[in-house]
Amino acid sequence: MKPAIGVTLSKRRKENLFTLKRDNSDAVLEAGGVPFLLPHTRDPEVIRRMAEQMDGLLLTGGDDIDPSLFGEEPQIGLGEVEPERDRMEIALSRKMVEAGKPVLALCRGCQILSIALGGDMYQDLFSQREGLIQHVQRGPRDYPSHSITIQKGSLLEKIAGSNRLRVNSFHHQAVRNIPEGYTVSATAPDGVVEAFEADGERFVLGLQWHPENLYRKDDFARRIFRAFVEACEQTALKRKTAR
């Protein structure tokens, strides 16, 4: 049974358009899922229904996150924010996690997932932390530019089949302190968090890179999406048998 997977959107305010980079939906389709695009809303009833109807959630990349959501004032280096999107994704992420449904969170999505669950983040790595490697690569989006070290025994290691791989990188924000009940599952050579995941058997996985841009060429990226969709298939099966 192909699972229904909610996919979050960016917004171009000047044109009043919702946008999605096609690699996100293509990667879900290629892995066997059915993507449903989720417009921004402040209506809690709509968000509740979204969470009920979806078998999994893909939190995509995009603009910066409003620092007031984790108790900070804006710092020099903070870029454009999407307040309505932030608040919707936080509420939706919490409902999906509370319902035990899979969540895959990419780049900005990794950061918003951390905030939703009680963690925090750097507003701007390059002004708030020293000794960094380049996290905003100058190569093509489908080129893995730096290495990561993956925690042994983690869900991510099971997916990867290795504890050292290379990923692409397009971010100036990053998770700082992860939520309680979660584990750092990968770091960059400079110690920046590249992935975190739920303790136990739940599929809740935040990745700081963009596997959706890599899946056409990269087995690791394809395995990430396939593992996510397989977890969503189990949710779909439970929903079907519960009717």
Q: What's the short story on this structure?
A:
With 243 residues, this protein is an alpha/beta fold.
List strands and helices in order, with pairings.
Layout: E1 4-8, E2 10-12, E3 17-19, H1 22-31, E4 34-38, H2 44-53, E5 56-59, H3 83-98, E6 103-106, H4 108-116, E7 121-122, H5 125-128, E8 146-150, H6 155-160, E9 164-167, E10 174-175, E11 182-187, E12 193-198, E13 204-207, H7 219-242
Parallel strand pairs: 1-4, 1-5, 5-6, 6-13
Antiparallel strand pairs: 2-3, 7-10, 8-9, 8-11, 11-12, 12-13
Biggest sheet strand line-up? 4-1-5-6-13-12-11-8-9
Q: Beta-strand level of the residues, as a percent range?
A: 15-25%
Counting structural domains, the number is: 1
Spatial separation of the terminal alpha carbons: 15 Å
Task: Write down the oligomeric state.
Answer: single chain
What class do helices, strands and sheet pairing give? alpha/beta
Largest sheet: 9 strands, mixed
InterPro entries: Class_I_gatase-like, Peptidase_C26, PuuD-like
Keywords: Glutamine amidotransferase, Transferase
GO molecular function: gamma-glutamyl-gamma-aminobutyrate hydrolase activity; transferase activity
Protein name: Putative glutamine amidotransferase
Task: Describe the fold and architecture.
The chain is α/β, with parallel strands linked by helices and 243 residues long. It has one domain: Class I glutamine amidotransferase (GATase) domain (Rossmann fold). 33% of the residues lie in helices and 22% in strands. It starts with a strand and ends with a helix.
